[in-house]
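In response to reviewer comment 3 from the previous cycle, which asked for concrete evidence that the modeling workflow produces usable outputs, we include below a single protein chain processed end to end. The sequence was submitted unchanged, and the resulting structure tokens are shown without manual editing.
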Amino acid sequence: MRHQPQPNPPAPTAPTAADYPPAYFRAQMSKSDAKIAWQYGRIMGLARAPRLAGSTLVDVGCGSGPALRYSVAHGARAVGLDHSHFALQAAQQIAPRAFVIVNDSTGGLPCASASADLMLLSELVEHVPDALPLLRECWRVLKPGGRIIITTPNLWDVRRALAPLTGQVWSGDTDPTHVNLYTPPRLARELRAAGFAQVRWHTGVKPAKWLSSRRLRMRLALPYPPLIGNGLLATGVRP
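The workflow returned the following structure tokens.
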């Protein structure tokens, strides 16, 4: 009997705004100022971002606005983009000095070329089937010397491999809107393909629960290896 080739699986499609009901943003909206300060302070530190004061930051996929709140508190001119009207209303409430714009990031960014110092894509690229066009758009919007910062689930997290053995599901696999998960090298390759230089990545952006002590978190400023912490951060600079 002749072997019949198996059909290719259908390509993933981009989630729409309807896939993100208000309940999707509840955890984000419940963050305290202290947690926002620690989370985004850590991200900016790992990314070696320049001082926010006086800079222009564009948060692509800003959700309910915690990064916007952090940025304006540190003196940045912050612009938030999201396709959820509900999320943008929440963002405007907690960061009233930020500019928010309804935008589907897969169709281009409503920003002038060479207008931003920082582009933040926090937990966004995993929702985009093909992120390379978006990364190229970010390159266009950044000023020469500007920096892109990306956070996303880390496919190298050992807990993903161990989850079936414990009857659990890895957190990155529980969200049906995650259609494009990354390993660190693959994300670095896409950043270089989009034109970025000085590409670097870190794992363990989200520490494991046993590192939840505030004192321990603050002392461990270095990135954690994949076996210890969840989350991937990658950064690059527009030449």
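Residues 123 and 152 are 5 Å apart (CA to CA). We consider this sufficient to address the reviewer's concern, and the full set will be provided in the supplementary archive.
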